[in-house]
Fold this sequence. Notes:
This protein is of the alpha+beta class. It has 3 domains: 73-340, Beta-galactosidase, Chain A, domain 5 (Distorted Sandwich), CATH 2.70.98; 347-575, no CATH class; 587-616. It is 43% helix and 24% strand. It is built from 15 helices and 20 strands. It has helices at residues 3-22, 27-60, 215-221, 317-321, 344-363, 368-382, 384-399, 401-410, 416-430, 438-457, 494-513, 521-538, 543-566, 569-583, 590-616, and strands spanning 78-82, 86-91, 97-102, 115-119, 123-130, 136-138, 145-148, 153-159, 166-172, 179-187, 199-209, 223-228, 233-235, 242-246, 250-256, 260-279, 286-297, 306-314, 477-485, 489-493. A hairpin with a 6-residue loop joins strand 16 and strand 17 (286-297). The two termini are 55 Å apart. Mean pLDDT is 80; it is low at 1-9, 15-23 and 56-71.
Amino acid sequence: MDRNTWIGFFLIAAIIVGFSLLTRPSKQEIAERQRINDSIALSQQMQIEAQQLSEAIAAEQPKAEPVAQTEPQIEESFTVLENSKMRLYLTNRGGRIARAELKEYKAYGDTVNDLCLFRGDEADMTFTLVTANNRILSTHNLAFEPIVESDSVVRMRLRTEAEEAWLDFVYTLPADDYMLRFTIAPHNMHNVLAQNMTDMEMLWRQRIPQQERGRKFEERYAQLQYMLVGGDMEKLSESKSDNKKESARVKWIGYKDQFFSTVLIADDAFSSTDFESVPQDKYTRYIKEYTTHSSVAFDCTGRQTTGFRMYLGPNHYNTLRAYDNDLPREQRLHLKELVPLGWKIVSWINKILVIPMFDMFSSWGLHIGWVILLMTIVIKLIILPFVFASYKSSAKMRVLRPQIEEINAKFPPEKMQERQQATMALYSRAGVSPMSGCLPMLFQFPVLMAMFWFFPTAIELRGKSLWWADDLSAYDSICSWSFNIPLLGDHLSLFCLLMTVANFAYTYITMQQQATDPNMKFMKYMMYAMPLMFLFIFNDYAAGLSYYYLLSLGITVLQTMIFRWSIDDQKLLAQMEANAKKKEGKPKSGLMARLEKMQQEQQRMAREQAKANAKRYR
């Protein structure tokens, strides 16, 4: 690369940075934008309160022709159930969970309040009851009485006109756990409810609020997933509105965000289930809205209860996997599948190598930056023999460049087959395989893809800072602007920019050591265009991923320089010539023999075709 090209690249970078700084909004503009957002939020809140007031007034208005007894106005109250990991607010209106907070996490930008999975009307779970006189009631509109049995058990009781008949929603929260036990227990309800009521309709709806800095990736990983009885995993589209009717029995339903999930697990199963997932407008604070309509078995006599478990917690691989410990294969929940780890071979690399290595280094109490550095070094040491073999193959190709140029000069382009045959013969004598340089890339690719999947979904990186990056699970913008640049977005990430520079350096060193055809200049320029493409691709990705790739490229450049200093081209050429003399008279074997045989067969077929064409036109 000449000096003018380097100057061009630096000018492009300077223009991008300078343009972003010049177009960066002023403090007054930022304050005005914040004022407008606050006004919009206040207006929306006033609309909600007005709507609630209107509904309350309408509820108090007498009906013109009452056809049934109406439920009394409910004065809502809350009962707190908590352990060391989470805090739940149970409301007497519907006996449901009205708010769920995780004590060990914070929403992005909030250093005070615990992370809230949902609050108020953002989530609702209601069951349909059919009375003996064929009235259809929804538990959402009924008043429950809270009964605190202990620090870990709260019973929400729905009383009836019959003194000894009631329906209990029992919530049991073990200590130090994200898994809640939820049981529906009827008592003497067989005279109150319809005798043919053997199942109960359930409606579960939840809106997922934005919790992270990068909305784009939070939308990408937010998804409705469920597992069928038997272990098959299914999911709805994460990028568009989707709905699905499931006739098979469902074991659990997961409302998933990028780093957190709410999972409802049936002791028996859900049946006749309809799922719906709707992406929310990007100008709201919500990512997705999930809805499930389903049926669950119900015994109104009370001899059998309807039981669930509910997981409200992080998408942490080891935490989710622990719920399958010591369970038979057919009873395993496979909640760990909520953590996306890539395609099958890639996920196995993450499970058996990346995650255990990350956990081991993290257990030493090291800073996250050192953890990622040690992981990078270990991975580089594992693939070092393959990288060295690839470099040595490239060095052999480089020292053979003068002889290849002689062959190209001897055989013009119209004699391409003769040129290829002579080149293959040269490679065979020198003991060079053109395919040997591909093996390390094939080996490295699954590892690179494993890291590509691991970092954006690793909750361990969430909120962890490194230098200028305050959250390694999100992008680390050093400058931003108020408009969207196609492919790049509205910001520039520094780790991604540094990774691009390192990629340029590595490409330059690689191109210098390889024997390239002067007529293939377009391919050379394409090699330099790839790092620039990575800048646009990874600008929105997790800073931890760009940091890993930066370290990996830096170590690769260092390795390449060490290999270059340790391998003498003249000695290598002399060794290749000595090996060629030893091979004289010996039969060829391996890849080179097969390639030569294929070329000879092609030449034979070409000669026969030429003869046939000559006879045809005589």
